[in-house]
Amino acid sequence: MLLEVRNIDVFYGSIRALKGVSFSVEKGEIVSIIGANGAGKSTTLRAISGILRAASGSIIYDGHDITHTPPHLIARMGISHVPEGRGIFGNLTVQENLDVALSSVKDKKTAGPNQDKVFSLFPRLKERRRQISGTLSGGEQQMLAVGRGLMQNNPFMLLDEPSMGLSPVLTEEIFGVIVEINQLGKTVLLVEQNAFKALSIANRGYVLETGSVVLAGTAAELRDNPDVKKAYLGG
Amino acid sequence: MGQFLQQLINGIQIGSIYALIALGYTMVYGIVRLINFAHADIFMFGAYMGFFLAPVMAKVFGGAFIPTIIAAMLITGLLGFVMEKLAYRPLRYKSRLSALITALGVSIFLENFCAMPFVFGPTFRAFPDLIVAKNIPIPGNLGLSVSNVLLLDIGVSVILMVLLFWFVNKTLIGKQMRAVAFDKPTASLMGINIDVVISTAFIVGPALAGAGGILYGTTYGMLASPFLGIWPGLKAFIAAVLGGIGNIPGAVLGAYIMGISEAFATSVNSNLGYGIAFAILIGILLIRPSGLLGKFMPEKV
After folding, report:
1. How many domains does chain B have?
2. How far is B59 from B62, CA to CA, in rounded Å?
3. B214 — alpha (psi -120 to 50), left (phi > 0) or beta?
4. Is there a domain that residue B295 lies in?
5. Which of A21, A32, A28 shows the shortest CA–CA distance to A221?
6. Which residue of chain B comes nearest to A153, CA vs CA?
7. C-beta separation of A64 from A95 below 8 A
8. Which residues of A58-84 are buried (b: 16+ CB within 10 A; e: fewer)?
9. A72 touches B: beta carbon within 8 Å
């Protein structure tokens, strides 16, 4: 098992955002967490990458307990988190955004090949590498956020709402890239409001509702589940 | 015309010293959103280091200026590092007001500690001559002259500023600093150790202020007391606000505007030289509170 989340609670102040959430991800999988706005999907990813602390429970990555590890060390241990709302550094150029992602990479010699890979997946970024990233379009910013995650060349990627705010064409493109990333051998944990698209590329999925996992199964099972259909797939 | 140019030159000279101090205010603010009031006292500390170290350096190295300024920068850099670790780091996740009050406390502590007889002492000290002052007349019939000290002030500040721009824009740690200034949680996801970046800002800013202290001592030839940092510090802080606090080129621009307007105001009346700083502060807060080069950033909730 690559990642095991055991019974974690996460609080925002006095609000309990996650209530005993447990799930796991196997090596090589695409696992999707679906759920409504505010269900705790992003919170779950933030707890894994260490930006938020689990008040109880534990998170095991690749045999190591990372529940209390600071985020920069988790990034260096092999988890890349592509945050919601893109989270690019708007004051830096495209190239500089990619450069700072290398902070988690020990062997700087891999930088060149990583960057070639990013530019081959997103040729648009190559054209705009000298542009201040805050002036990119929404779709380009999303590409940069994913590209920055790929720069780290980590085996495990957490993707938070990669399709948010994108046109259907770009959404299609981004999901294509996720499948490609997975085929490169990376494990993906995907959080999406677009449940239909997410379940169409995932191996397995979890449904989160008001901070708890209410349903788990293979992607096909979830797609056929009448409750899921009704709540998340539009009937 | 001659008078005008002479004041302009004087203004650029004092502006250079303000710039070295203002950069530290702005760098620290950009990264931890703290006005480090003790920064003015780091500047003072650098000047006193020049006083104590120059005779030693002159003996060891022959020439005093370069070794003294480097030593002062190293010591003030270390002072900034220790200050952050002891005073500000424990308050990192507390309210911003606590850190601000702590900064005032650190400032008052440094001033009064250094004023004790067995530390720097409260009295006037003559600053050693790090270089032999000379006046160089400018050819032409305007009767202008510049001193080699003036050229040194401007030259050293420009070199340090060029080095800083290179550091912030081209090195990995510089890019990390800008990323941390923009968004700390995301920066940590990149594998950036936020503590290292904050410490770096608290080393580089104070080191520049230390260099400013040496230039100040060389320019005025005396150190009035360990409270001497207050006025230059205040003016440099206003310069940083004028340029847009958190913005590095803004701090430099603000410092030169401050230096030049002060030189002209002082030539009219010496008290006006002090007043102009506050006139500028009030003006900028009324017209453009984010500063000349600053961007208005709404508070994130």
Report:
1. 1
2. 6
3. alpha
4. no
5. A32
6. B190
7. no
8. ebbbeeeebbebbbbebbbbbbbbbbb
9. yes
Give the rounded distance of the alpha carbon of A144 from its chain centre. Answer: 14
At A81, the amino acid letter reads H
Task: Evaluate whether residue B296 is within a structural domain.
Answer: no
β-strand B125-126 against A79-82: which pairing, if any? unpaired
d(CA B223, CA B240): 24
With beta carbons under 8 A apart, name residues in chain B contacting A80: 189
The ipTM assigned to this model is 0.93
**Partners of A11 in the β-ladder:** A16
Give B129→chain A minimum CA distance, Å. 44
pLDDT of res. B150: 93
What is the C-alpha separation between A125 and A99, in angstroms, rounded?
13
By DSSP bridging, strand A187-192 and strand A156-160 are: parallel
The verdict on B98 touching A (C-beta cutoff 8 Å) is: no
Q: For residue B175, what is the domain's CATH number?
A: 1.10.3470
Are A97 and A140 in contact by the 8 Å Cβ rule? The answer is no
Q: What is the pLDDT of residues B200-257, one digit of tens each?
A: 999 999 999 999 999 999 999 999 999 999 999 999 999 999 999 999 999 999 999 9
The tokens for B177 are 């600093």
Range of the domain at B136: 2-287
- Cβ of B175 within 8 Å of Cβ of A96? The answer is yes
Tell me how far apart the alpha carbons of residues B254 and B244 are, in angstroms, rounded to a whole number: 8
List chain A domain ranges: 91-154
Query: Chain B, 3-42: which have a CB under 8 Å from a chain A CB?
Result: none
- Domain membership of residue B86 (yes or no) is yes
Q: Spell out which residues of chain B touch residue A99, defining contact as CB-CB under 8 Å.
A: 172, 175
Contacts of A111 in chain B (CB under 8 A): none
pLDDT for residue A156 is more than 80: yes
- pTM score of the predicted model: 0.91
**Is residue B10 assigned to a domain?**
yes
Q: Which two tokens stand for residue A223?
A: 């797609």
Please calculate the CA angle B101-B103-B105 and round it to the nearest 5 degrees: 70
Pairing type for strands A3-12 and A15-25 reads antiparallel
Band of the pLDDT at B142, cuts 50, 70, 90?
confident
Nearest to A91 among B178, B191, B192 (CB): B178
Running DSSP on this structure, what letter comes out for residue B88? Answer: I
- Angle between the N-to-C axes of helices B172-182 and A94-101, in degrees from 0 to 180, rounded to the nearest 10: 100
Q: What are the phi and psi torsion angles at A85 (to 5°)?
A: 65, 20
Helix (H, G, I), strand (E, B) or coil at A148: helix
Radius of gyration, alpha carbons of chain A: 17
Chain A residues in contact with B193 (beta carbon < 8 A): 72, 103
Report CA Rg, chain B: 19
Residue B189, chain A, CB below 8 Å: the answer is yes
Task: List Cβ neighbours of A163 (8 Å cut-off, separation of 6 or more).
Answer: A170, A171, A174, A175, A192, A194, A197
Spatial distance between the Cα atoms of B180 and B171, rounded to a whole number of angstroms? 14
